[in-house]
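Contributing new records

If you add data, match the layout below exactly. Sequence lines come first and carry their own label; structure lines follow with theirs. Keep one chain per record. Anything else will be rejected by the validation script.
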Amino acid sequence: MLSVNVVVVGNLKEKFWREACDEFSKRLCRFCKLKITEISESTFSGINQTLSAEAKNILPKLCGYVFVLALEGKMLTSMELSEKMDKLALGGVSEITFVIGSSNGLDSSVLAKADFLLCFSKFTFPHQLMRVILLEQIYRAFTISAKMPYHK
């Protein structure tokens, strides 16, 4: 079974975000071993210090094939993400990690460790909502692969 890690900076403050993530986490357990790791947001006054401090906590958590969510990344359709995950699994990859940075972005050292820079949209989303969107898209990718009717 594929292991999927989601490394996120920050935590879910509102109950409704936690409930949405819990729902997709529950749905995903039939397809993969899911692990969500929250990294504390740094509170340094300078952006470079903040991103560097967060990177020191993110980098040790990167395992397997690494997708980093970044505005400069490539946009994929849900079908393309599903196909990419299928190809990785068929190619022997047993672990995939997705990284969501803070509202300040990510340090260049984290971007450099990415196997794939993934952009969901040119829109800006709250990071808590982005976690829900990411989990939903991972779930959608698995249902596409399993030829389930969820994806229409």
